[in-house]
Amino acid sequence: MLAKLADQIPVGDDWLYEPKWDGFRCIVFRDADAIELTSRNERPLTRYFPELLPPLLAGLPPQCVIDGEIVIPAADDRGLDFDALLQRIHPAESRVRRLAAETPAAFVAFDLLALGDRNLLGEALSVRHRSLVDQLAGPRSIARSSLYLCPSTTDPAVAQRWFTEFEGAGLDGVIAKRLTDCYTPDKRTLVKVKHRRTADCVIAGYRIHKDGNGVGSLLLGLYDSDGVLHHVGVAASFTAKHRTALLAELSPLTVDALVDHPWREWAEATVTSDSDQRMPGGGSRWNAGKDLGWVPLRISLVAEVTFGQLQEGRFRHGSQFVRWRPDRKTVSCTYDQLEVAAPVPFSTVVTRR
Fold first, then answer.
1. Which candidate among 62, 171, 265, 302 keeps its CA 20 to 30 Å from the CA of 220?
2. Span 31-56, average pLDDT
3. How many structural domains is the chain composed of?
């Protein structure tokens, strides 16, 4: 099931509210001693998270299909560590095994799709959720260590409090589900309410759109307290017309752009792996053939962009361009302007009812 974005949490008697997790969506298939983990798009995930198999075998019914999210709690229990989660998608089994021990993942279950020989896809969420609670809140819970039942509530006031309170745990917002709905794969029947703010960022460069025409994304930068410019994300989702206009608008700023550019070493492909400066680059774990080359710009432009969450110094998920800010100087684009939620332990979230 997919979700459509909304600005406010919907209210009414037929809604169930849950935290919106920032991890990998995962469907768990169990048949006796066999367990398979797949993404929503049917990408295999089992080999990347071997540490989940024992707790899933100990905590799930012998035959079931369960929808949920794979997350990695931060080592200091300060929310979720999405960067550590990304590191797990690696072809080397030895690396996967090492990271499984160093940064173990957890599975948060929020829907029951099948139980034994019973297909629950056509059942109302109220039935599926009650069955899930019955299965995961019983004696099996004693044996599980990395398997959690997703917190939920039917009280919109509680959901609103979670929306604010759980941001510090690295959660995206709140998901609202109609209790009367059956399970509808690939249809946007859920409602998601996410944190959305704006920030003024330096535009340090751009990438060409994947079709080869116009600007596909703008590279965003923020200065730290030492005056170092860090790459914090990209602004994308431009229309075809806007992509072409942006290319013409930015073209003059490409002249001598690398002179004194703070990311010059990366642009010339000489950045070392031990650099403390966050810069764009590196391969895509999900798409090894993806071109991440970029065109540097002279450091002179400031743009206001939307962002939802700051994690490890970067914007999580894509940002969107709002407007140019000719009234702002690039040196004023610092991390200090950002509102950052106070850290909340992952353990606090998963034990909340």
1. 171
2. 94
3. 2
DSSP 344: -
From 65, 70, 69, 72, select the one nearest 28 (Cα to Cα). 65
Dist. CA 70–CA 122, nearest whole Å: 25
User: What are the beta bridge partners of residue 5?
Assistant: 192
Distance CA 174, CA 157 (A): 12
d(CA 248, CA 341): 38
Q: Which of 27, 352, 343, 6 is nearest to 171 (CA)?
A: 343
Q: Is 31 strand, coil or helix?
A: strand
Region 147-155 average pLDDT: 93
DSSP for 144-167, written as a single string:
-SSEEEPP-BS-HHHHHHHHHHGG
Report the run of H or E that residue 99 belongs to, with start and end.
helix 93-102
Lowest mean pLDDT among 81-85, 94-98, 167-171: 167-171
Q: 278: domain range?
A: 198-337
Residue 137 pLDDT > 50, yes or no?
A: yes
Cα 193 from Cα 160, distance rounded (Å): 10
Query: Which residues are tagged catalytic?
Result: 20
Nearest to 317 by CA among 91, 148, 86: 86
Return the H-helix or E-strand segment holding 137.
Answer: none
In a shared domain, residues 184 and 228: no
pTM of the model: 0.75
* Residue 343 predicted with pLDDT over 80: no
pLDDT at 287: 43
Q: Is there a single domain that holds both residue 156 and residue 248? A: no
Which long-range contacts (C-beta less than 8 Å, at least 24 apart) are formed by 208-216? 208/295, 209/238, 209/243, 210/291, 213/240, 213/243, 213/244, 214/238, 214/240, 214/242, 214/243, 214/244, 214/245, 214/246, 214/247, 215/243, 215/246, 215/247, 215/250, 216/243
